[in-house]
Structure formats: structure tokens, C-alpha cells
Write a structure and sequence with these properties.
This protein has 119 residues and is mainly beta. It has helices at residues 54-57, 103-109, and strands spanning 4-10, 13-19, 24-32, 63-66, 74-77, 80-86, 96-99, 112-118. The strands form 2 sheets. It has a 6-stranded mixed β-barrel. It has a two-stranded antiparallel sheet with strand order 1-2.
Length: 119
């Protein structure tokens, strides 16, 4: 297994970013939409801050929310690849919530236990 070490220099500080090995875990995966009824009145804002509009971003890429992985981590969940852009409420633990375009799609997805890998 190869671990990639990438060193970035910022002024006189050195920051080392370690790309972890791909490990598969079984996680609970659910789905939701960005409607205010399912989020809050700032439904297009996430833990990434107000400058990132995920309502537009979600039209181009599959996004998700979880506390189990760092923000902006790319995950492979079954045959879906998503990017972690938000944190769900603590009461949901480490499950992964996929952002879906419609309520019907979210309900159809349901609750699943799936293999998750860091991309």
C-alpha cells in the first residue's frame, strides 16, 4: 500500500498532507434534499461557509453530509461518488446523508448500509 506524502510550503511553515490508504467501512447511508423543510432557512449554506452555494454545486456533482469524514473528502459509496460538504446534526452520529434533487428520490433511496471508501 502506497501512502502519498505531499508537502506544501507556506512562508516559513511546512504543512504535510497525508493521503490515507483506501479503507472500506460499512456505514448507514440516507438521503435528503436541500429544501428548507429538511434543513433550515440557510439551506444553500453549509459548514464550508456562506461563500459556497451548494444548491448550485449539487446540480453538477453528488454532495453529501457526514461527521465521519473531513469536509471536502471524496467518498465512494457503492456506485456513487460524493463530496462531503456539510455536517448533519450530532443526533445523526456518523451516518452519511446524500443530497438528492427531489423528495421522491430521497424517499426511494431510503436507509441503506453500504460500503464506503475514501477516494
Amino acid at each position: 500500500m502506497i501512502t502519498l506524502f505531499l508537502t506544501l510550503l507556506f512562508g516559513n511553515r511546512t504543512i504535510e498532507i497525508v493521503n490515507p490508504p483506501i479503507q472500506a467501512e460499512i456505514r448507514t447511508v440516507t438521503a435528503y434534499t436541500l429544501r428548507p423543510e429538511e434543513t433550515d432557512s440557510t439551506n444553500c449554506e453549509t459548514a464550508l461557509g456562506p461563500r459556497v452555494n451548494i444548491c448550485e454545486w449539487a446540480k453538477r456533482e453528488q454532495l453529501c453530509a457526514t461527521r465521519a469524514y473531513p469536509l471536502l473528502t471524496r467518498l465512494q459509496i457503492g456506485d456513487i461518488e460524493c463530496i462531503v460538504v456539510d455536517r448533519p446534526a450530532k443526533k445523526y452520529g456518523e451516518r452519511i446523508d446524500l443530497i438528492m434533487p427531489t423528495v421522491e428520490q430521497a424517499l426511494k433511496y431510503g436507509i441503506q448500509s453500504l460500503e464506503v471508501k475514501i477516494k
